[in-house]
Amino acid sequence: MGPLAAGLALAGCGHALPPLPGFAPATWRADTYGCQGRRLALLPNLLKAREKLYLTRADDINALLGQPDEEELREGTEKVYIYYLVPGPQCEPGHRRSAAPCLRLHFGPLGTVTEILVDPTAKMAQ
């Protein structure tokens, strides 16, 4: 298989994300770094639909949740998107890394969601 064919094959992996009942993506996207404190209230409805998020492509996650507040690159082509849930040090100028509760979406080598993690402190704050 040539490089073009391999690229086309990988582009077809994953699935488009259907609408998530009760989740307000525009509100989530507008709450950059979680500084307005609105994301935590949206989290329960997002987590109710967590099964729909698995195998979703990064581009579709970006369309739903916006660009991540932070991105970690892992081995190979794996990466993690981080979305802060509540205000914290990340809201100060420079947006430094914070230990504030966050949602972490792990993407595997095919560029699709493989794991969804929420800080335990975020669950307690709901």
Automatic annotation (TrEMBL):
It comes from the Bacteria. This is Lipoprotein SmpA/OmlA domain-containing protein.
